[in-house]
Specification:
Elements (H helix, E strand, L loop, with lengths): L5 E6 L3 H13 L5 E6 L4 E3 L4 H5 L9 E3 H4 L4 E3 L3 E5 L4 E5 L5 E5 L2 E4 L4 E2 L7 H4 E2 L4 H19 L4 H7 L1 E5 L3 H17 L12 E5 L11 H13 L2 E4 L4 E5 L2 E4 L4 E3 L2 E4 L3 E2 L2 H5 L4 E2 L2 E3 L12 E3 L4 E2 L13 H19 L13 E7 L2 E6 L2 E5 H14 L3 H16 L15 E6 L4 E3 L7 E7 L2 E6 L6 E7 L4 E2 L1 H6 L6 E4 L3 E7 H10 L1 H15 L7 H9 L12 E3 L4 H10 L4 E5 L5 E6 H12 L3 H4 L9 E2 L4 E2 L4 H11 L3 E5 L6 E6 H13 L9 H6 L2
Parallel strand pairs: 1-2, 1-9, 2-5, 9-22, 11-18, 12-13, 12-18, 13-14, 21-23, 35-36, 39-40
Antiparallel strand pairs: 3-4, 6-7, 7-8, 10-19, 15-16, 16-17, 20-21, 24-25, 25-26, 27-34, 28-33, 29-32, 29-34, 30-31, 30-33, 36-37, 37-38, 40-41
The structure holds flavin-adenine dinucleotide.
């Protein structure tokens, strides 16, 4: 192989890349060319059967085929290709030991598929399960089985139903298949869980169109919907998800589907490698000519989900399916062989054979060569076709054995999950959601990335709530109960949409012991939180609790519009005694703040710019975003504590949770009112503190 005169590099060992490598190896001898295939994992994933892994009817190793055992005579490398130099014909990859490796090529086939991107819906990437890798399918299966276990021991019927409510977003092939699989797994396993009744289980499929499975003809779509509903799956059509939290999903029309499990099968992204590549793209995919060569490049080709290829058979754009990727892999290999032999290339042309979709309950729908089939026969054909399409004989035997087991025995309910507290993760909360409630056991530590939260203490005797503090970005919470090993002494509730980083108890304990700066910050925070400034002045506290922020609000002295520049801010600080400038949008909603201290911090950033550009640096790129704000209805006590614990001189005040800026509340003003009250005899004066201040 070492004496080969040419080298063909393939990036991606999925449907397209594997078929391309196989065809090339059949058509060219090792002396004619060396074939190198890069794939991050050492196996190819057979995606169409991932829902079956999630539903415990297949074992994970049955859908992952080891590349080097499948591709004889191909050099398989499990390194990530990070960049491609099309002009120099070189790929750059993350080599062993943290180095960067390079490899030149005569021909390059880009077949790196698509990546998962759940980021377009708030909270989706934090709380929903994607279904793209074998790991995703295993994590989902473990989670579903754990929900059965939790529901079995849950005394509260409402909470039990929550454990057994599953929401699947996306009514395409993978969404329909995974909803059917989860429904089968949970309903068929019920007989092993005596405390679970069939009414406790809800599986909901949310789809944005009029009907699920838009690729199929109308009668098959309605058949699929009818059968799925009969099996107990609720189908919600014409619905778009607006947010996902640990509690379930919200739709754009404000309907909520509560449940412990959300699966998202929509949301694909462009792989970084493709994004970085300077070549014409259409919706992020690499545009190719009819023969699948990158536009304007004689030696680079693109196939599969990452490519924008037209099918000469019907003039349509090729859909992102394994069927098309495989065909493109075969035909691109033939075209490369033609180029190497000095022959002309052929355009991509393929007449699709048909589509299958399993809908659960040993039912499927299919359109094969123009014929429509549904029900058990379609399901049987679906299994036979996929068995035949699996990439190697070893996988066919494994899958066949698992399916035979599935026909004879109940699905395997073993749950090989890792300890969930051993995690660093992120979480999203909608306004009004509780991060935790008073009295709950302490499981996590939280650091706020975005948004504002209320810390609330509930009086156990009369149930009344007291707002203790308001916290925002840069703050952390939840450490006291973890350190002291006790239940939560207050509740924390999101006031605006909130994003937090969450550390499980054990991770928190290890990191806080090992990291000296964190230890120091924690010690400071605990000192501040335990040294309650009100203990020695209970009557002052009572007075400020009875007063709303609105009694103290003053006009915000320094406001800049979002298009202001660094120079504008500099001028205000230079000519006034300003300590804070608020930056607002066209509707007067607060976007950020810049303080005198921030100014010193950003001077270094601005100094690296050319002199002529310094003044015009946008204020938006320098301000602290998403600042902590108070509303007019908050208590003055909460505002005072928030300023005291952060060492702030003032806080912006807005109307409602996301309303426009109305002014600010200043620590000095509140302090003056307090001093006046302390200086006067108890019970005097009778007028509200805020108003009495204006007469000073
Ligand atoms: C749940 C699910 C069910 C599906 N069901 C069906 C179905 O029933 N029928 C059907 O036809 N299609 C189905 N599809 C779609 C089908 O799987 C894809 O269209 C197909 O996998 C695309 O093949 P590909 O070769 O373009 O990319 P992929 O198969 O995604 O392979 C790309 C490979 O490239 C690797 N890679 C990416 N970037 C790099 C890099 N920089 N360096 C090294 N390696 C890299 C990846 O790790 C991956 O292994 C399904 C997809 C999913 C997710």
């Amino acid at each position: 192989m070492g004496t080969a005169s040419k080298r063909i590099v393939i990036v991606g060992g999925g449907f397209g890349g594997v078929q391309c490598a196989r065809t090339l190896r059949r058509r060219l001898t090792p002396d004619q060319c060396e074939i190198v295939l890069f794939n991050r994992e050492n196996h190819m994933v057979f995606h169409p059967l991932l829902p079956e892994v999630a539903g415990a009817s297949l074992n994970p190793d049955a859908v992952a085929a080891p590349l080097r055992q499948m591709l004889n005579g191909v050099r398989c490398r499990t390194e990530t290709v990070r960049a491609i130099d099309l002009a120099g014909r070189v790929v750059e990859f993350d080599a062993h030991g943290g180095h960067t490796g390079t490899l030149s090529y005569d021909h390059l086939v880009i077949a790196c598929g698509r990546s998962v991107n759940l980021g377009s819906v708030p909270g989706m990437s934090d709380h929903a399960f994607p279904l793209k890798t074998v790991g995703d399918a295993m994590a989902l299966r473990a989670h579903v089985i754990q929900r059965l276990e939790d529901a079995e021991v849950c005394e509260d019927p409402v909470q039990r139903r929550w454990h057994l409510s599953f929401v699947v977003v996306g009514g395409g092939f993978s969404g329909v298949e995974v909803a059917g699989e989860i429904n089968d797994l949970v309903r068929h396993s019920r007989r092993f869980y005596p405390n679970i009744s069939s009414d406790d289980i809800t599986v909901t499929l949310v789809h944005s169109g009029d009907h699920i499975l838009p690729e199929l003809s109308m009668d098959l779509r309605t058949f699929a919907e009818h059968e799925m509903r009969k099996a107990g799956i609720s189908i919600v059509l014409n619905a778009r998800v607006s947010a996902a939290t640990a509690d379930g999903v919200w739709l754009k029309d404000d309907r909520q589907f509560r449940g412990a499990t959300t699966v998202c099968t929509v949301g694909t992204g462009v792989p970084l490698l493709v994004e970085r590549l300077e070549s014409p793209k259409e919706r992020g995919s690499l545009v190719t000519g009819a023969d699948m060569r990158l536009l304007g490049n004689a030696h680079a080709w693109a196939i599969g989900d990452c490519a924008h290829v037209k099918n000469t058979h019907d003039g349509e754009l090729c859909p992102p399916t394994g069927q098309f990727a495989e065909r493109q892999g075969r035909q691109v290999a033939e075209n490369i062989v033609r180029v190497m032999r000095g022959e002309s290339t052929r355009p991509f042309t393929y007449k699709p054979l048909g589509v299958f979709c399993a809908i659960g309950g040993r039912n499927a729908v299919a359109e094969i060569l123009g014929h429509r089939i549904s029900g058990f026969i379609a399901w049987f054909l679906w299994r036979s076709v996929y068995l035949f399409k699996l990439p190697s004989w070893s996988r066919r035997v494994k899958v066949g054995a698992d399916w035979a087991w599935d026909l004879l025995f109940a699905r395997d309910l073993v749950n090989l999950k890792t300890d969930p507290t051993e995690r660093v993760s992120r979480a999203y909360f909608r306004p009004g959601d509780f991060v935790f409630r008073q009295g709950e056991p302490a499981l996590n530590f939280y650091s706020v990335e975005k948004g504002t939260l209320d810390v609330i203490r509930t009086n156990e005797t009369d149930g009344s709530e007291q707002l203790v503090a308001v916290i925002g970005p840069g703050d952390f919470f939840g450490e006291m109960a973890l350190i002291e090993g006790r239940a939560r002494s207050a509740s924390v509730r999101a006031r605006t949409p909130v994003e937090v980083t969450t550390l499980g108890a054990q991770v928190f304990s290890r990191i806080s012991k090992a990291l000296a700066p964190l230890q120091q910050r924690l010690a400071e925070a605990i000192r501040q939180r335990t040294a309650n400034p009100w203990t020695r002045l209970p009557h002052v506290h009572a007075m400020l609790r009875a007063e709303a922020v609105s009694s103290f609000v003053e006009p915000a002295p320094y406001i800049l519009a979002a298009d202001a520049t660094f120079e504008d801010a500099l001028e205000i600080f230079a000519t006034h005694h300003a300590d804070t400038i608020y930056i607002v949008d066209d509707s007067s909603r607060i976007l950020g703040v810049i303080t005198r201290t921030d100014l010193f911090r950003v001077v270094d950033l601005v100094a690296v710019k050319p002199v002529a550009e310094r003044g015009s640096v946008s204020i938006r790129s320098l301000m602290s975003r998403d600042p902590l704000v108070m509303t007019m209805d908050d208590t003055a006590a909460a505002a005072a504590l928030s300023m005291w614990s952060r060492g702030l001189k003032s806080l912006p005040v807005v109307t409602g949770a996301n309303g426009p800026l109305v002014g600010c509340i200043r620590a000095e003003t509140v302090m003056q009112a307090v001093l006046r009250r302390v200086a006067r005899p108890a019970g005097f004066p009778s007028e509200p503190v805020g108003q009495s201040l204006t007469s000073v």
